[in-house]
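pinned: reference chain
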Amino acid sequence: MKQANTPDASPWHAGERYLQASVGVADQMEYYGPRIMRDHLPEQHRRFYNRLPYLMLGAVDERGRPWATLLEGPPGFMHSDDPLLLDIDRLPANGDPVRPALTADAAVGLLGIDLTTRRRNRMNGSISAASASGFTVSVVHAFGNCPQYIQPRGVSPDSLGQGSSEVESEILGELDESAKATIRSADTFFIASYVDPDGDASRRSVDVSHRGGNRGFVRIEDNVLTIPDYAGNMHFNTLGNLLLNPRAGLLFIDFESGDTLQLTGRTELILEGPQIATFPEAERLWTLTVEQVVRRRGALSLRWRVEDDSAMRELIGMWAPQ
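pinned: its structure tokens
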């Protein structure tokens, strides 16, 4: 996405428009885009972020690698006294690769998501102020997302209100067997991506979004992940970014132990071909070749429990690869 200067200006960049055109919704999205992408936080979004005990955050390190992480704290650690700003009174723990990327003027992507109700709102912007205890994000775009493919999970009440732990970071150059086991068992992950319009890093736009499926929906071969892309809102924010800039950062969470697995690497889109049919219900695929792994065991204080997976299974079938 790029910043719209007038109410009728397109919020979509070239990668998003290309993919929208490929499925025949370009005119529709040009009409709806300026109406659904806001340059401020509506009141309901401000209340929503304020109630959440966690936030998904994406940023880009000094080497141009995107990373995704989860911030946690007591409800109220995010607050907005101005619809153009969101104040966040938390930083990632030391050892989280996102932490050093949160500098003044840095572009960031945010995803507020309630895994219990499956509601989610997305936002991207830039850091207008940073301190030793938190940061403020100036809004560029704010918009809602549908609840598709979100596995319902409730937070265990006794795990609320804490910050992430200062645990040792294991840094690897490729996936080991433990990392592969985490990925194979996952039904959820989060992805950070970004674009620099016309190669201008000062106009950088970062996005972080959710991906879900039946347990095992991500396939692994050596150091390469293959991920199905299902029918969605037709924005193509993530895939549009990857079309123009193939870098991505993934976050896998062990919702029972609090372990996190952060990956960064290079992607490739698979928009047609026989391989797509091997993933039931997929409309296209993309791959990630992993370049670095950061594992932090027990980093998160929050714990979740699965509420009901019937909606997920109904959406994308009963397939679960062995």
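why pinned: Helices lie at 14-22, 26-36, 43-51, 177-184, 237-244, 310-316. The first strand starts at residue 54 and ends at 60.
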